[in-house]
UniProtKB/TrEMBL annotation:
GO terms for molecular function: alpha-L-arabinofuranosidase activity; xylan 1,4-beta-xylosidase activity. Residues 635-705 form the Fibronectin type III-like domain. One of its GO terms (biological process) is arabinan catabolic process. Gene3D superfamilies: Glycoside hydrolase family 3 C-terminal domain, Glycoside hydrolase, family 3, N-terminal domain, Immunoglobulins. Belongs to the glycosyl hydrolase 3 family. Keywords: Hydrolase, Signal. The lineage of its organism: Bacteria, Pseudomonadati, Bacteroidota, Bacteroidia, Marinilabiliales. SMART domains: Fn3_like. It comes from the Bacteria. This is Beta-glucosidase. Pfam families: Fn3-like, Glyco_hydro_3, Glyco_hydro_3_C. PANTHER family: BETA-D-XYLOSIDASE 5-RELATED (PTHR42721:SF3), SUGAR HYDROLASE-RELATED (PTHR42721).
Length: 726
């Protein structure tokens, strides 16, 4: 009997060695092996359940519940206390990819902390995962679009470089694991109008597709972005989330994209409720799957894909292909591995909203601020007798955060930043004076009197996310988030006019907002105009850093400010003719790449290593930049190429082909060198093909778009040379 019990004990000890040890739970196996093993154990219904943004747990397979939907445009959003960085358009204005990669690295650090802390408590809510639907790399082609603040501006080259930096920071550099999964959106021709976006059909020529709307997506695919989100609207007559050409032919076959495609939320419902490309939800689900969509944000895929298989509209093998891409993301995020072997699973909680991350947010804000005008009033002394801070955005948190924002317990408003910077004994007085976008109910105005007895008035104007943003977010917008009225609110201009009636008033206008707006009258009336975008949780301190000269403003405009909307084509027109710095012939209010400094720069000595090259050749161009002023500051050195006129297609006026942000002490000079290769000479023809024409190419290097308007506004004279291509 004793030996019998010994055998029983031995059996239980050895049983695990003979038990089914699933390959998909073995971290030493290749991911493809693990995926195939897991798929073989799943029913059709279980597979389909994992193809919606809210994916339920499958306990017998050790699959945890997972919510794919998460946001991180400028910090972890909607999840809990996290660092709120400046809005994306401000990141574009830095012209500094290295800085933005540091931002995204901080964001992904915080994302890992928040995710694991919640998961360890079995909290698996929306906005708590590791798959982020960011960055937004749509081209900001028209200032009326309310979501332009989410982008990096109007230029495909700049957008691609800043977007790549953000993806690298989010995803990390581990050979096996993703830190988080980035998702580039909205593929592919999407930039308004907001109202009716689900039914809108964007008509884009093949040239505009390959010259403007697709390049940034191609750049991010080459950089290894894990996901692509298809847009709500249709492009050239086909819904973007069932667009065989864009998804299957271009994204997957031509570019070799290996990640997953996700719909914008509930876009598949439109297939059978408004645009009528499917009879019902089952057909809609099948149509999206056939055309390359792997994950749905919404409720059409589950359970309708099961019915689609039963009807013969799709096969289970097609579901396996799509689900395998989603499982690959989850395996690469480490969701089926022990935490102790995942290098990203144990990032210390102390990084969350840390002093280091707060300092980084402040640094980005300073580097993004664009000085639009300065008659010498800035930088301010910090020991004046009385400062008057006023305007509807001076004490507003909305003026800091933009949209898709996180929450924080220590926002620093512009008023607070200024108040904390002046010397003891100096007075800081504050009155909001006016409402954001409508006349005061009470006509009595004490604020103009306060301005008249102050040494300087800091007037914080502009707009907020109440007036611009996504369709359902901008609750004060009469245009569903868009800005069909280009002016800043008239009541703000009225207040500025009243202040300037006293000629002794010294006025610094601080402009908040994420989109171009008509600042012509502000420019005329104010002594200085500083554009601060949505500068994040440390925005007030960053504004004070710039106003008081602790740092020079480092930003450049990533988008053109037209004089008026009369200079632009209709909003709904997606042709690039007449749009952005590349095709807008009229002189703008502020050009692309523009931004003044507290010092002056001079460009000289441009030279080419070769004056003539073959079409497949390369050369280098160099120029000297000198700080001829009295303050150390950064300069964004910009390289523009103008192709010779083409006989077969429209030629851009200019194309940004390189930039470098440098820091120079007073009197310091530096030689900046750019390599010019065939990719920088390419012109896209009317068929979407790359061509390089023989002829003379104008090479310009300067601190802004190389136009008369830039120089007229105070930018240094650019240097130019000619490269002959044969």
């Amino acid at each position: 009997m004793k030996s019998f019990y010994s055998l029983i004990i031995l059996f239980f000890l050895l049983a695990p060695l003979f038990a089914d040890n699933p390959l998909y739970l073995d971290p030493n196996q290749e991911i493809d092996v693990r995926i195939n093993d897991l798929l073989s154990r799943m029913t059709l219904e279980e597979k389909v359940s994992q193809m919606a943004n809210t994916s339920p747990a499958i306990p017998h397979l050790n699959i945890q519940e997972y919510e794919w939907w998460n946001e991180a445009l400028h910090g972890v959003a909607r999840s809990g206390i996290a660092t709120v960085f400046p809005q994306s358009i401000a990141m574009g204005a830095t012209f500094n990819p290295e800085l933005i990669e540091r931002v995204a690295t901080a964001v992904s650090d915080e994302a890992r902390v928040l995710h694991h802390a919640a998961a360890r408590r079995d909290i698996r809510l929306r906005y708590g995962g590791l798959t982020f639907w960011a960055p937004n790399i749509n081209i900001y082609r028209d200032p009326r679009w309310g979501r332009g603040m989410e982008t990096y501006g109007e230029d495909p080259f700049l957008t691609g470089l800043i977007g790549t930096a953000y993806v690298k920071g989010l995803q990390g550099d581990h050979p096996r694991y993703l830190k988080t999964a980035a998702g580039a959106k909205h593929y592919a021709v999407h930039s308004g109008p907001e109202h009716g976006r689900r039914e809108f059909n964007a008509i884009a020529s093949t040239k505009d597709l390959y010259e403007t709307y697709l390049p940034a997506f191609k750049t991010l695919v080459d950089a290894g972005v894990e996901a692509i989100m298809c847009a709500y609207n249709s492009t050239n007559g086909e819904p973007c989330c069932a667009h065989n050409y864009l998804i299957n032919e271009v994204l997957r076959d031509k570019w070799g994209f290996k990640g997953h495609v996700v719909t914008d939320c509930w876009s598949l419902n439109d297939f059978f409720t408004s645009i009528n490309v499917a009879e019902d939800a089952v057909e809609a689900a099948a149509l999206a799957l056939i055309n390359g969509v792997d994950l749905e944000c919404g409720s059409v895929y589950n359970p309708n894909l099961v019915t689609a298989v039963e009807r013969g509209l799709i096969t289970e093998d097609q579901i396996d292909v799509a689900l395998s891409r989603l499982l690959s993301t989850r395996f690469r995020l480490g969701m089926f591995d022990p935490e102790e072997i995942n290098p990203y699973a144990n990032i210390p909680d102390t990084v969350l909203n840390s002093s280091t991350h707060r300092a980084l947010s402040r640094e980005v804000a300073v580097e993004s601020m664009v000085l639009l005008k300065n008659n010498g009033i800035l930088p301010l002394r910090d020991d004046l007798s009385r400062y008057f801070v006023t305007g509807p955005n001076a004490s507003s948190i909305h003026a800091l955060i933009g949209n898709y924002y996180g929450v924080n317990d220590r926002y620093v408003t512009i008023l607070e930043g200024i108040a904390g910077r002046v010397q003891i004994g100096s007075q800081v007085q504050y009155r909001p004076a006016i409402l954001l976008d409508r006349p005061n109910v009470n006509p009595i105005d004490w604020s103009t009197g306060s301005a008249s007895v102050s040494d300087v008035t800091i007037l914080v104007l502009g707009i907020t996310n109440l007036l611009e943003g996504e369709e359902g977010e901008a609750i004060a917008s009469p245009y569903y988030g868009d800005r069909l009225d280009y002016s800043i609110p008239e009541n703000q201009l009225d207040y500025l006019r009243r202040l300037t009636r006293n000629e002794n008033n010294k006025i610094v206008a601080v402009i908040v907002g994420g989109s171009p707006m008509n600042l012509k009258e502000v420019h005329e009336l104010a002594d200085a105009v500083l554009l601060v975008w949505y500068p994040g949780q440390e925005g007030g301190n960053a504004v004070a850093d710039v106003l008081f000269g602790d740092a020079a403003p480092g930003g450049r405009l990533p988008v053109t400010y037209p004089m008026s909307l009369d200079q632009l084509p209709p909003y709904e027109d997606y042709s690039m003719e007449g749009r952005t710095y590349r095709y807008m012939k009229e002189s703008p209010m502020y050009p692309f790449g523009y931004g003044l400094s507290y010092t002056s720069f001079e460009y000289s000595d441009i030279s080419l290593a070769d004056r003539r090259i073959r079409r497949d050749g390369k050369t280098t161009v160099r120029a000297t930049v000198t700080n001829i002023g009295n303050m150390a500051a950064s300069e964004v050195v910009q390289l523009y190429i103008t192709n010779p006129p083409s006989r077969v297609t429209r030629t851009p006026l200019f194309s940004l082909r390189g930039f470098e942000k440098i820091f120079l002490e007073p009197g310091e000079s530096r030689e900046v060198v750019f390599e010019i290769d065939k990719d920088m000479l390419v012109l896209i023809d009317d068929y979407g093909k790359e061509t390089i024409d023989a002829g003379d190419y104008t090479i310009a290097i300067g601190g802004a778009l190389p136009t008369e308007r830039s120089v007229e506004l105070g930018m240094p004279v650019p240097v130019r040379t000619t490269l002959n291509v044969r």
